[in-house]
Amino acid sequence: MTVFQKSKFSQDCRAISHRPVDVHENTDSYLNHPTLGLLYSVCLLEEKQELFTTIYAKRLFFLVTTTPTGIKFEPIGRTNARLMVENCLSQRRRLGQSQEYNKLQTLYQQTF
After folding, report:
1. Fewer Cβ atoms within 10 A, N terminus or C terminus of the chain?
2. Half-sphere exposure of residue 48, counting CA atoms within 13 Å on the CB side?
3. Residues linked to residue 32 through DSSP beta bridges, in sequence order
4. Strand order of the sheet with strand 37-46?
5. All structural domains of the chain with their residue ranges
6. Which CATH architecture has domain 5-111?
7. pLDDT tens-digit profile of 27-75?
């Protein structure tokens, strides 16, 4: 198990993206990995479990679980990551969370 420090970098990342900033928009979540650099949060799977990917290539995926002792970091395959995101999309569609669904759908299309 590897322990990482989770941080929010919404201000810096929004400045780089060259798009208007919506004050009410959710901030993006990043994980600072000592070897791979910044990992980007793809989606929240369960209360204490998120799917992350490498920020630039979006080719390596990690299941990150928050525990009382730290953050558990588990690499997963691209196919499994894709299925997890598809399940999140279905769940958001069923619950009528259109804004979250649209954001995740865009990320899904860019990543897979």
Report:
1. N
2. 9
3. 5, 38
4. 5-8, 29-33, 37-46, 49-54, 61-67, 70-76
5. 5-111
6. Roll (2.30)
7. 678 888 778 888 999 999 988 999 999 888 778 999 999 999 988 889 9
- Using an 8 Å Cβ cutoff, are 62 and 76 in contact? yes
SS in 3 state form for the chain?
A: CCCCEEEECHHHHHHHHCCCCCCCCCCCEEEEECCCEEEEEEEEEECCEEEEEECCCCCCEEEEEEECCEEEEEEECHHHHHHHHHHHHHHHHHCCCHHHHHHHHHHHHHHC
CB 48 within 8 A of CB 67: yes
- Global confidence as pTM: 0.71
